[in-house]
Design goal:
Blueprint (H helix, E strand, L loop, with lengths): L12 H8 L5 E8 L4 E5 L17 E14 L5 E13 L6 E9 L6 H10 L6
């Protein structure tokens, strides 16, 4: 089983980590990107925009990937689901510290990708 808390050599992947917040002991069978990902970056909430890779890296960056996936919880039938897989990287409290977080916004489509990404870039500890 893929478990969100197990970060050993066999990392469970972003989707399994995000799903662990919704349901425990999820086994992911397949994953498909179903629409164009959105990438936003910036140093504060007023300037989150697609990154300019010719400039210095911003302090905050994130990606929202519309995905479909098949999975199964032990003892239940396999299921197909979809949503936005969100990942952000932001500065931590200590000098040089970088924090990352990942979520699955279940049944939220690509039309809400930029809005959802701005929310988590501003509040990377948010729980959906």
């Amino acid at each position: 089983m893929l478990r969100g808390a197990d970060f050993g050599k066999e990392s469970p992947g972003w989707l399994a980590v995000a799903l662990e917040r919704i349901v425990e002991d999820v086994e992911i069978h397949w994953l498909k990107v179903i629409d164009t990902p959105v990438v936003l970056a910036g140093d504060d909430e007023s300037d989150f925009a697609p990154p300019d890779f010719t400039q210095d890296p911003p302090s905050r960056i994130g990606v929202a990937v519309p995905v479909g996936f098949g999975g199964q919880v032990e003892g239940h039938d396999p299921a197909v689901a979809w949503g936005l897989l969100l990942w952000v990287m932001v500065p931590g409290d200590r000098e040089g510290e970088t924090l990352q977080n990942v979520w699955l916004r279940y049944e939220i489509g690509a039309d809400h990708a930029a809005e959802s990404l701005r929310i988590v870039l501003q509040a990377p500890d948010i729980q959906f």
